Amino acid sequence: MTAPGRAPGPRPLLNRRLAEFGTTIFAEMSALAVRTGSINLGQGFPDDDGPEEVREVAVRALRDGRGNQYPPGPGVPELRTAVADHQRDRYGLDHDPDTEVLVTAGATEAIAASLLALVEPGDEVIALEPYYDSYAACIAMAGGTRVPVTLRPRDGAYALDLDELRDAVTDRTRVILLNTPHNPTGTVLTRAELAVVAELAVERDLLVVTDEVYEHLVFDGEHTPIATFPGMRERTVTIGSAGKTFSFTGWKVGWVTAAPGLVTAVRSAKQFLTYVASGPFQYAVAEALRLPDSYFADFRADMLAKRDLLAGGLERAGFKVFRPAGTYFITTDIRPLGEGDGFAFCRALPERCGVVAIPNAVFYDRREQGAPFVRFAFCKRTEVLEEAAARLKTLGV
């Protein structure tokens, strides 16, 4: 008989593929923010809800009984059509809403389902490091081997070494996992860079899974889906999300667009994850995607002003700041402050000045690469960012 409090058998309870992943840093730092009453610039969620007219669509859907029961497995037709229209109108990508669009429980599920569907044990997945922490966990759950290609600071921004990317491809490579605009560095891959990635994918017969959830938050340059390049339409899984664009992160509405065979494969995995989710919210997101261009322009302009507000405050506090070309995160270098350990710095920061940030090292396989870098989120109200900047200024006092 197993002793009280002991796990049965000699094996650990947690699947060994997940053994390296503990509680996420976001949970740890958000709990620290609550405990200390600090301003939370760690986790990337807005502190204001999105458009009132979009919320009202969700309320009406609830009252009218639309989506209160299981929605269709691929997603409600209204949202699939709206996603297809969005991809066509903005990027010239034609997708059949019935066979080439799949609605998911946020982008995180879309990433998980894509990798579980397309990657087998022993396959290698190239990912741009630093990367969103769920990428590593999803590759591990699929039994794949992650191969990081590191974005490195250069001339005040982070850059992709295309030669390093080419060298990372082997006979075992199955997928290149892209993220542009890139979290956490704010890098937006250029058309020239994406052209090289596309040529490499075609030449080596690779699949590309591309996380484009920050597509409407590009401040410098432009967002270009890699699926628009020659030979990429049939080998690319494009992932989008409502959470970042419309400030409804809790609704968990994401989507996949791809050729029919790829969508079928991803749906085969997705159906055994959530099956379906977010029924009433799907109708609201369908309406959100049809908002006028002025909404997207105003949203971007507001975030740009907030980027510059927080970036200026961080610079005055003594950080070296990498102003992001996209997303709503700023990466900073803490070495000018006489610091070098991002974990220690972030754990002490709430007590020192009442602000929470995230150590970038959690986004690296080779943690020493990210040790002196710290990420701040600026998707907060202006008065919150002003107060955070004032508090951070005390670091140099």
Tell me what you see in this structure.
With 397 residues, this protein is an alpha/beta fold. The protein is 40% helix and 16% strand. It contains 14 helices and 15 strands. The strands form four sheets. A seven-stranded mixed beta sheet has the order 2-10-9-8-7-3-4, with helices on both faces. The protein has a four-stranded antiparallel beta sheet with strand order 11-12-15-14. A two-stranded parallel ribbon has the order 1-13. A hairpin with a 6-residue loop joins strand 11 (320-322) and strand 12 (329-333). Helix 4 packs parallel to helix 5 (133-141). The chain is globular.
Outline:
By secondary structure, the protein is α/β, with parallel strands linked by helices. The protein is built from 14 helices and 15 strands.
**What's the Cα radius of gyration?**
21 Å
What portion of residues belong to β-strands? 15-25%
Order of strands side by side in the largest beta sheet?
Answer: 2-10-9-8-7-3-4
Oligomer: single chain
* Total number of helices: 14
Quick check: average pLDDT?
95
Total beta-strand segments = 15
SSE inventory with pairings:
Elements: H1 25-36, E1 39-40, H2 52-64, H3 77-91, E2 101-104, H4 106-118, E3 124-129, H5 133-141, E4 145-150, E5 152-154, E6 157-159, H6 162-168, E7 173-179, H7 191-203, E8 207-211, E9 236-241, H8 243-246, E10 254-257, H9 260-270, H10 279-288, H11 293-317, E11 320-322, E12 329-333, H12 342-353, E13 355-356, E14 358-359, H13 367-370, E15 373-377, H14 382-392
Parallel strand pairs: 1-13, 3-4, 3-7, 7-8, 8-9
Antiparallel strand pairs: 2-10, 5-6, 9-10, 11-12, 12-15, 14-15
